[in-house]
Amino acid sequence: MRVRLVVRALLAVALVVLAAAGWAVASGAPARSRPAGERRVLFDGFGGSRLDRRIWTPYTGRPGGDPGGWWEPSHVVVRNGVLNLETSRDPRLGGRWVSGGVSSARGLEQRYGTYLVRFRMDAGKGVAGVLLLWPQAPHWPPEIDFAETGGDRADRSDMTATLHYGPGDQTIARTVRGDFTRWHVMGVTWTPRRLVYTLDGHPWATVRSRHVPAERMELDLQAQAGTCGDRYAPCPDATTPASVDLQVDWVAVYARR
Question: Which helix H or strand E contains 106, and what residues bound it?
């Protein structure tokens, strides 16, 4: 299953309130300074009008474990230097809610490193957005969600970072508050038995655990419509805008030397 939305029912949840939660980050590429001991292995500023297929592969079809969701490559749009992962009703599919998502499996899979994404997301009930690391091997978990907003959090007033592990999908989660309808840079530095989550260049949570994965993983960026009747991943309703976009300005990835 590609996404398991976790907002409650978590083994460990810490709520971090940032005094400057409304910070907006200046547009443009990340600072030239790189994480200590790492080298940059990927940067995409989404210039031009097409997705770079050397790096990204658009999602297609139904998400595992979510009968209400659907992904189509046509909902992945690069425009004015921004990647738009759009969720809207698609008349070609009977008017159902359809979303966009992309995987870096074609261009980047690695073990450990730092991942930074400058993004924002429209408000809208029933539409989730996730920035995550997904295993290269054909099994699940593990999964590292370093920014996740559920469809039940329509105002985008917080983001959850979750480590999924173990055959029963156990989790370790942290939550940070902010206005994520505005631009922010969220990231994770992944090292042996340790995850450091960052917001606008500042660490906001650290997880130390033997369950931190030590295998190659890809970077995925995705929006996803929920399922009617699911408490934590509801479907869009009459309050949901006609289009709910997760927008990405740039992505930067670093590897350990």
Answer: none
